[in-house]
Amino acid sequence: MPPSHPSDDDRVTEEAADWCLRLQAEQVSDADRAAFERWCRDDPRHLAEFDAMRELWGLSAGLRPRVTATPAPARPVAAARSPSVRAPKQRRWALAACVAAALAVGWPVGWSFGVLPGTVDVFLGGDRHRVVGLPDGSTVDLNVRTTLFYAQFRDRRSVLMDHGEAYFAVAGDAARPFTVFTAAHRVRVTGTRFNVWANDGELAVTLAEGAVTVSAAAAAAGEEPLRLTPGQQGRFARDSRFGSVARVDPARVLSWREGKLVFDDITLAEAVPLLNPYLSQPLRLADRRVGAMRIGGVYDVADLDRVVASLPRVLPVTIAAKDGVLLLSAR
User: Fold this and answer.
1) Nearest to 120 by CA among 139, 101, 144
2) Phi and psi for 150 in degrees, rounded to 5?
């Protein structure tokens, strides 16, 4: 079943944002609530998108319909894709900010109730590592091609980083927890230093100082998150609700901040996602056989195109340009 058309997805997102705003108003009529419940029943995507928008704004779960929404019989169940599969979170943040800005008169009230952010900032990733300062006093090292959205509410601080890598030095504020949202996970802290790497639903969080908890967005109520201590790395595989914890050397993980990548005898399957942001043409593995080959060493990120070109001299592989990528195959 092909996915729904992007314009239809945009319509659902816009309608979800509109319902969030209408239902948080002081006067909500029974007719409005009934219309909202009908909207939720019309399409299984509606309630999923509403919940995603409500979570980003931190709105009360009480805004959900009182009657559980069910799919319309005529619509295929496959059309009900979760937000983490469709991953339009950047659009949700932008839409939330734009709609809130349009309600400038009510912004102070929304902020005082913790519904709307007082500050929304976007930090665009580029071809070089850069350091940015957040309004709360935190600093973030952005790796190449990493874009970060920041929203500061009265009682919390939220970051959206759907893809890429960043090192956070979070200013301590117990009254306003700091949460990093990726495509399918949440990292929560009050003040600490940690690295987040996100790639196509996969996640690695490395803790340098303090404490963090990491959980999947799809985690069931009451499910315990991963709790990391300094020197630990928590990893989540794609579409997994449960992660693993390993002891690592944070200095090696954070070597990208110094323009280096350190590979400590890792597989090519692990190395390729770390290499690709720096390459003029991304690598793709032909099969699991080549992905299982191992690589080690310390590499300058400015020289990685040359390193990749030399791989056939150090590993039994071939490289061929195909469809805009470099296909890495076993020899």
Assistant:
1) 101
2) -125, 130
Judging by beta carbons within 10 Å of its beta carbon (0-12, 13-18, 19+), is residue 37 exposed, middle or buried?
middle
The domains located in the chain, with CATH, are 6-86 (no CATH), 117-251 (2.60.120.1440), 259-330 (3.55.50.30)
Give the SS3 label for residue 18: helix
Which pLDDT belongs to residue 220?
A: 75
Q: In angstroms, how far is the first alpha carbon of the chain from the final one?
A: 37
- The CA–CA distances, whole Å, from 22 to 17, 79, 99 equal 9, 26, 12
Q: Which residues of 57-81 are buried (b: 16+ CB within 10 A; e: fewer)?
A: bbbeeebbbeeebebeeeeeeebbb
Q: What is the pTM of this model?
A: 0.69
Taking the C-alpha atoms of residue 94 and residue 117, their distance in angstroms, rounded to an integer, is 12
CA distance 278 to 204: 18
Q: Render pLDDT for 52-94 as a digit per residue (tens, 0 to 9).
A: 666 655 544 445 554 444 444 444 433 333 333 344 555 555 5
